[in-house]
C-alpha cells in the first residue's frame, strides 16, 4: 500500500494541494484525473519521490518496490533494449551483473563460491531465471520485434523508446506501478494488450491518461484532483463522470434551496422587525437564518470550453469524389490508386496504414499537397475546414491571441467579438492578450478549433485533433461533433472519440482499402474484416489507429 499524508504544495500564491490524504491499496488500478495544471504528473512525482511537497509525507509499505514509467527517452541510450527492460528491477539487474562478473572470472576463489551462492539464492528468489522470457513477453506485447532487442536504445525511434520504457516499468511485478500517459505511441493492439495486462495485475497501479476508453477498461477507481484535493470514486471513468456531476448538482441544489429560504427569511425580518405584533416571529426567523448552512462552492480547476461547429449551409448530393489518387513520399508510395466516394451524412474514421499515409490523404484533400497523379473533386456546395496534425505554421508570426484570431473573424467584427470568442474557449481576461509563442500544445489546439468554428464549413477534416487536449476539452469537443449534422473525415488514436463519432470506417492497408459503413466497435469485432485485413497486411495484421 502507498499513502499520501497531509500533502501540501503551492506555486507562489497558487495552492495545488491542500492537506491531501489518500490511500492506494493493492489489487486496484487508480485513474488519476484532473484539468491541465491540476497537478496530476506532479503528484505522481511526489509519490515516486522524485519531487517534494511543501508539507506532508508519502508512506510506502516496508520492502515494497515502486516502478515508474520514465519520461527521459535518452536516459538509457547506451544500453541494449533488453538490458533497459531488466533495469526496471534495479536489484535484480545488479545481482545479474555481479553474478555474471563472478562466473566470467578465470580463477574462482572460495570467497567467490560463497558469494555466488548467496547471489544465486537472491537471484532465484527474484525469479531471475524467468527474467529473459518475461522481458520478451512484455516487449512482444508492446510491439517491439525480436530483431530490435539487442540494439542500443539510441538506435530506436522515439515511439519504440517509449514502448521499451513502458516494458521497463511493467517488468518484475512491482508492488506499486506509476504510469504517466502510458498509451502514448501505442497502437490499438498494444493498448488492448496493456489493458489486459493491468486487468491481471494484482498490485497497485496509479495511472494518468487522457484516453477515456483506456480509463474505462483498465481502472477500478478514479482519483479526481480538484479543489486542491483528491477524491476517490469506485468505478471507471464513465462512472466517475456520472457520479461527480450528480454530487455537484446536489451541492448546487442544496445551496440554491438554502439561498431561497434565506432570502425569504431576510425579507420577513426586514418587513416586520419594527412591528411590535410580529417582533417575536421576526426574532425567531433571525435564529433560523443563523442556522442556515449556505456554503460557497470552491472554484473548480475543471473547465469545459464551448465548442460548436455550425455549418453555413447543408451539403448537396455530391460531397467528394476521389479517383486513382497516387502519392509518393521520400521514395515510398503512400497512396496507390485510391478511389473513394464520400456521401451525405458520412462520419468517416480513416484508420490503418501508417500515420504518414493518413496525414498525406488529408493534406491533399485540404489543398496543402498535390497528388502525383489521379484527381479529387469537391461538390459545388462544399466548404471544408482542416485541422492539421502539425500546426506550427499557423503560429509562425508571434501575435497576441486577439490579433491571431482576428485573421479568421468576419471583416465587420472587431476586438470585442474576438475577446468573447476566446473567452468561451478558456482564454478570458489577460489570457486573450498572451502571445502565440508561449502557448502550450493544448492551447494551440483550442486556437485551431476556434479558427475552424469561424469557417462555418460543412465538411470537417481532422488529423489527430485530441492530442494535447485535457479530458474536459476532449469531452466538450467530442460532444460538439456529436451534434454536427454534416460530413467529417478524421484520424484519431482516441478509441472513444472514434467509436462515438464514426459511422463509416476506411482502413488504408498496404494491399488495398477496406471500406465499411458501420461503427468502429462493430468493425473491430468483425471476423470477416479481421480475416480480410490479415490478407491485405500479409502477416502484419495489426490495426493502427
Structural overview:
This protein has helices at 40-48, 81-86, 90-103, 110-125, 131-141, 158-170, 188-200, 212-218, 237-272, 279-291, 355-365, 401-406, 415-424, 441-453, 471-482, 495-501, 520-525, 527-537; strands at residues 2-11, 14-24, 29-33, 55-60, 66-68, 176-180, 204-208, 221-226, 229-234, 320-329, 332-342, 347-351, 373-378, 384-387, 459-463, 487-491, 504-509, 512-516. With 545 residues, it is α/β, with parallel strands linked by helices. The radius of gyration is 29 Å and the shape is flat. The model has no long low-confidence stretch (mean pLDDT 88). Helix 3 (90-103) packs antiparallel against helix 4. It contains 18 helices and 18 strands. The protein has a six-stranded mixed beta sheet with strand order 5-6-7-3-8-9, with helices on both faces. Strands 14-15-16-12-17-18 form a six-stranded mixed beta sheet, sandwiched between helices. A three-stranded antiparallel beta sheet has the order 2-1-4, with no helix packed on it. 34% of the residues are buried. It has three domains: 2-240, 3-Layer(aba) Sandwich (Rossmann fold); 249-291; 320-394 and 454-537, P-loop containing nucleotide triphosphate hydrolases (Rossmann fold), CATH 3.40.50.300. Helices cover 39% and strands 21% of the residues.
Amino acid at each position: 500500500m502507498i499513502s499520501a499524508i497531509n500533502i501540501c504544495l503551492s506555486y507562489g500564491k497558487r495552492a495545488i494541494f491542500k492537506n491531501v490524504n489518500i490511500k492506494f491499496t493493492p489489487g486496484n488500478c487508480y485513474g488519476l484525473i484532473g484539468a491541465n495544471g491540476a497537478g496530476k504528473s506532479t503528484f505522481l512525482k511526489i509519490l515516486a519521490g522524485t519531487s517534494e511537497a511543501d508539507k506532508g509525507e508519502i508512506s510506502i509499505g516496508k520492502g515494497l518496490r515502486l516502478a515508474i514509467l520514465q519520461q527521459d527517452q535518452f536516459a538509457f541510450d547506451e544500453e541494449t533494449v533488453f538490458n533497459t527492460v531488466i533495469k526496471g528491477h534495479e536489484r535484480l539487474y545488479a545481482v545479474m551483473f555481479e553474478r555474471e562478473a563472478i562466473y566470467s572470472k578465470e580463477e574462482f576463489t572460495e570467497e567467490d563460491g560463497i558469494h555466488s551462492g548467496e547471489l544465486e539464492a537472491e537471484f532465484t528468489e527474484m525469479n531471475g531465471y524467468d527474467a529473459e522470457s518475461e522481458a520478451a513477453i512484455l516487449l512482444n506485447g508492446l510491439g517491439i520485434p525480436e530483431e530490435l532487442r539487442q540494439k542500443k536504445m539510441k538506435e530506436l525511434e522515439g515511439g519504440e523508446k517509449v514502448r521499451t520504457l513502458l516494458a521497463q516499468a511493467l517488468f518484475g511485478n512491482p508492488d506499486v506501478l506509476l504510469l504517466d500517459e502510458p498509451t502514448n505511441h501505442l497502437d490499438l493492439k498494444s493498448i488492448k494488450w496493456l489493458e489486459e495486462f493491468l486487468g491481471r495485475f494484482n498490485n497497485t497501479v496509479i495511472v494518468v491518461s487522457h484516453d477515456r476508453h483506456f480509463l474505462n477498461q483498465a481502472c477500478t477507481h478514479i482519483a479526481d484532483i480538484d479543489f486542491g484535493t483528491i477524491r476517490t470514486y469506485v468505478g471507471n471513468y464513465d462512472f466517475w463522470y456520472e457520479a461527480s456531476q450528480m454530487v455537484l448538482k446536489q451541492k448546487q441544489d442544496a445551496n440554491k434551496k438554502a439561498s431561497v429560504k434565506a432570502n425569504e427569511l431576510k425579507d420577513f425580518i426586514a418587513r416586520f422587525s419594527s412591528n411590535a405584533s410580529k417582533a417575536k416571529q421576526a426574532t425567531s426567523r433571525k435564529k433560523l437564518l443563523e442556522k442556515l448552512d449556505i456554503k460557497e462552492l470552491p472554484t473548480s480547476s475543471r473547465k469545459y470550453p464551448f465548442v460548436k461547429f455550425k455549418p453555413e449551409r447543408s451539403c448537396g448530393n455530391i460531397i467528394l469524389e476521389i479517383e486513382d489518387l497516387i502519392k509518393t513520399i521520400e521514395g515510398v508510395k503512400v497512396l496507390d490508386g485510391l478511389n473513394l466516394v464520400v456521401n451525405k451524412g458520412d462520419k468517416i474514421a480513416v484508420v490503418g496504414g501508417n500515420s504518414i499515409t493518413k496525414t498525406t490523404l488529408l493534406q491533399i484533400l485540404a489543398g496543402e499537397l498535390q497528388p502525383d497523379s489521379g484527381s479529387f473533386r469537391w461538390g459545388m456546395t462544399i466548404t471544408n475546414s482542416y485541422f492539421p496534425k502539425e500546426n506550427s505554421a499557423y503560429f509562425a508570426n508571434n501575435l497576441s491571441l486577439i490579433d491571431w484570431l482576428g485573421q479568421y473573424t468576419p471583416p465587420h467584427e472587431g476586438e470585442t467579438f474576438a475577446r468573447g470568442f476566446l473567452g468561451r474557449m478558456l482564454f478570458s481576461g489577460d489570457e486573450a492578450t498572451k502571445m502565440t509563442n508561449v502557448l502550450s500544445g493544448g492551447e494551440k489546439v483550442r486556437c485551431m478549433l476556434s479558427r475552424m468554428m469561424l469557417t462555418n464549413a460543412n465538411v470537417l477534416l481532422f488529423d489527430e485533433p485530441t492530442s494535447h487536449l485535457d479530458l474536459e476539452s476532449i469531452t466538450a469537443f467530442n460532444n460538439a461533433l456529436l451534434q454536427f449534422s454534416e460530413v467529417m473525415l478524421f484520424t484519431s488514436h482516441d478509441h472513444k472519440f472514434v467509436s462515438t463519432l464514426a459511422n463509416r470506417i476506411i482502413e488504408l492497408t498496404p494491399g488495398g482499402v477496406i471500406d465499411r459503413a458501420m461503427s468502429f466497435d462493430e468493425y473491430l469485432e468483425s471476423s470477416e474484416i479481421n480475416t480480410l485485413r490479415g490478407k491485405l497486411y500479409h502477416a502484419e495484421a495489426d490495426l493502427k489507429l
